[in-house]
């Protein structure tokens, strides 16, 4: 059990939990920065968490829900007030509905996570600030402390498994729901480099090509909110061509971008999914600094499970891995 101290102070409305870990500071930080990792321990064992958004940057947000044994899905959110990687972050924490909207009928609180090196590894101090003694009592009665203990009791296992977790990991796609897929890849480059590589035409045409044998004759990258983009690819023999277009819904350089996506041409590439079926696809890209480079997390929302499965069946993940490997090799590698 990593928890070494619990201090509830009603006089200043705080709950402080201190935990010690026999791992380097960066490894502990990454466990909170990577949604694939934090969702392995954030919820108690009987209520595992799923993070559908995790923008670990000041002004960013996290949305998550926990799935109970009876299928109930209570939700929560974080609003990131400050982030000082890998030393601390502060959030406004509260309850939320399925879309991540705050539930104002229940209390919210301010949480400060402080990370520091120790002689034996690293220490995490979590201080929760409540708005009133009534809210502190209410949340403790709701089982907040017991839930936190149960959740933190799982971190040791996650940290011990991080080396094998990362080993050999390339681009991976995780099914979060019938219509949502999260694609993740740690790219060896900093956040600014990876952002530029997704927004400068000359760079995009060098790496975003999928498997060998394709070129990118049309490359009009996304720009400001409300603007559009258009990408088209063509096989070297000229027999196949397809592309995507869409609109920028959100842009927070260099950390987050949300775009719509619609396929143009090349129905055969998408296993028969036609252009009209693509009109509701939404991509949410988040770039987060981690110890190995930049974690790229792409949350894709499809209009239906049918479309989701058809797109995944095209070998999309393998094509993306080919592109990201080329990005590291030909764009981000030192000359």
TrEMBL record:
- The Activator of Hsp90 ATPase homologue 1/2-like C-terminal domain covers 23-159, 191-329
Q: What's this protein's family per the entry?
A: Belongs to the AHA1 family.
Quote the protein name from its UniProt record.
Answer: Activator of Hsp90 ATPase homologue 1/2-like C-terminal domain-containing protein
Q: What organism does the record attribute this protein to?
A: Brevibacterium salitolerans
């Amino acid at each position: 059990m990593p928890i070494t101290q619990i201090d509830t102070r009603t006089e200043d409305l705080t709950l402080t939990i201190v935990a010690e870990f026999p791992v380097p500071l960066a490894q502990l930080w990454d466990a909170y920065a990577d949604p694939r990792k934090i969702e392995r321990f954030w919820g108690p064992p009987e209520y595992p968490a799923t993070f559908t958004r995790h923008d670990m940057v000041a002004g960013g947000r996290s949305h998550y829900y926990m799935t109970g044994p009876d299928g109930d899905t209570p939700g929560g959110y974080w609003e990131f007030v400050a982030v000082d990687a890998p030393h601390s972050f502060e959030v406004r924490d509260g309850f939320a509905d399925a879309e991540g909207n705050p539930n104002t009928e229940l209390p919210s609180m301010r949480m400060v996570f402080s990370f520091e090196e120790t002689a034996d590894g690293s220490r995490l101090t979590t201080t929760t600030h409540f708005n009133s003694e009534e809210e502190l009592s209410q949340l403790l009665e709701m089982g907040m402390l017991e839930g936190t203990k149960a959740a933190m009791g799982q971190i040791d296992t996650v940290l011990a498994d991080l080396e094998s977790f990362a080993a050999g990991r390339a681009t991976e796609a995780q099914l979060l729901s019938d219509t949502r897929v999260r694609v993740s890849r740690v790219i060896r480059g900093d956040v600014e480099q990876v952002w530029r590589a997704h927004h400068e035409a000359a760079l995009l045409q060098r790496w975003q090509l999928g498997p060998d044998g394709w070129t990118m004759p049309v490359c009009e990258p996304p720009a400001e909110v409300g603007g559009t983009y258009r990408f088209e690819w063509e096989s070297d023999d000229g027999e196949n061509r397809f592309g995507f277009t869409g609109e920028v819904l959100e842009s927070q350089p260099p950390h987050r971008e949300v775009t719509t996506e619609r396929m143009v041409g090349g129905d055969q590439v998408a296993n028969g999914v036609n252009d009209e079926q693509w009109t509701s696809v939404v991509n949410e890209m988040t770039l987060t600094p981690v110890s190995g480079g930049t974690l790229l997390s792409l949350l894709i929302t499809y209009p239906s499970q049918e479309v989701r499965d058809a797109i995944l069946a095209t070998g999309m993940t393998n094509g993306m891995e080919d592109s990201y490997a080329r990005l590291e090799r030909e764009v981000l590698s030192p000359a």
